[in-house]
Amino acid sequence: MNEAPKELQYVLLLFGLLVLPKMLQRYRVPSAITTLLLGVGFGAGLGLFLQDETVHLLSTFGIAALFLFAGLDVDARGLQRGARILVEHLGIVTLTLVVATAVIATLLPISVRASVLVALALVTPSTGFILESLSSLGVSKEEAYWIRTKAIASELLALGVLFVTLQSTSSARLILSAIALLALAAFLPVLLRFLVDGVSRYAPNSEFAFLLIVAVIFAYVTRQLGVYYLVGAFLVGVTARRLREELPRLASDQNLHAVEVFASFFVPFYFFNAGLSINREALSWQTLWLGLAFAAVSIPLRTALVILQRRARLAEPWRQGMRVAVPLIPTLVFTLVLAEILRERFGINNALFGGLIAYAALTTIFPAIILRAPREAFEIDQEVVLAGAAPLYEDEPGPGAQ
């Protein structure tokens, strides 16, 4: 296989990334897991595509497009609708992060900063991945709203914690990095207005290209700032969505769909490239047991916290709360990113690195299994739900009010 022409290798790669995952989805294997395992097989198994610049470039397009899509889906009005519940949710997530950091710092021989990143890897939902797979989970429109808003709110918090953690080696670095990030955020609307108003008149229907190019550029800029690609791409998406009324063509539904399609094509290269980074030393029974241990603690805890909050705040039956909690379990992309950062900057051992990868895979498989269980397991008496649902705000009638 190593002697096969490079062109043939790429043809086989395209088949593996774009066709094989679709074939295995019928067996409830998420496509992201298939492409991740293909990366492990080609890299650690066959020694192919290691340090391949083409694959790396395509994977960068994938991660940038995925977080651009997540940013474009940030609707400020939608977040305001459930503001009180989201604030409570973020408070619970913050407390979970603090406790998890303390436990990890006590049990593992790593620094406090590394412990914060491990905690983030364990509790942060992968928003881009969740949004992309939301339509396949069979949830209702209202459930999809809560899944989307809670995932976005959690990721915004996580990105802030990630930025502070990575830049907190000194107060001077943290301040300078914050100033640089704020400058980028202030410059971005000016750049987007110039591209749409000043350049697009000479290049009609080029808004999608502008959006994507700016996302990739800003992803590389924030990578140089030390906060990885995802921050820059996400910032571009959020800014474009905020300018939607002023520049309707930039963040139109058509462009949003185009970004989603683009991401769905290139994201497999990101997962494949992540699989290539997993060496043989990270593949052991110890890493599997560590991943299972992480999952055995984190998945039930995170699920229960969401269900209990929704039970207390909205008087939801536990089955309905579970239909919101379970789709928030996947941490795939965020965990993969943080595992790589932990290995590059903090020198974590192969066992912990592999354990985080195994945990990410388990959290990704979990919703596909649970939400495709027999329908009776999740059937809800709608009359009971509508009669007992609490209002989102004190002065707002509940869903069952006339």
Kindly describe this structure.
There is one protein chain. This protein is an all-alpha fold. It has a single domain (51-373), classed as Na+/H+ antiporter like fold. The protein contains 18 helices and no strands. It has helices at residues 6-18, 20-24, 31-45, 53-72, 76-81, 83-107, 112-123, 127-133, 141-167, 171-199, 207-225, 228-242, 253-276, 285-314, 318-325, 332-346, 350-370, 382-388. Helix 3 (31-45) packs parallel to helix 13 and helix 7 (112-123) packs antiparallel against helix 9 (141-167). It is globular and about 60 Å long. The chain starts with 5 loop residues before the first helix and ends in a 14-residue tail after the last helix. The model is unreliable at 373-402 (pLDDT under 50).
SS strand fraction: under 5%
CATH architecture: Up-down Bundle
* Biggest pleated sheet: none
**Per CATH, what is the topology?**
Na+/H+ antiporter like fold
Count of extended strands: 0
Contiguous helical run count: 18
Shape: globular
Distance between the termini: 67 Å
Query: What is the share of helical residues?
Result: over 70%
Counting helices, strands and paired strands, the structural category is mainly alpha
What Rg, in angstroms, do the CA atoms define?
21 Å
Total tally of structural domains: 1
Q: Can you tell me the CATH class?
A: Mainly Alpha
Return the string of H and E elements: HHHHHHHHHHHHHHHHHH
What's the average pLDDT?
82
Low-confidence stretches: 373-402
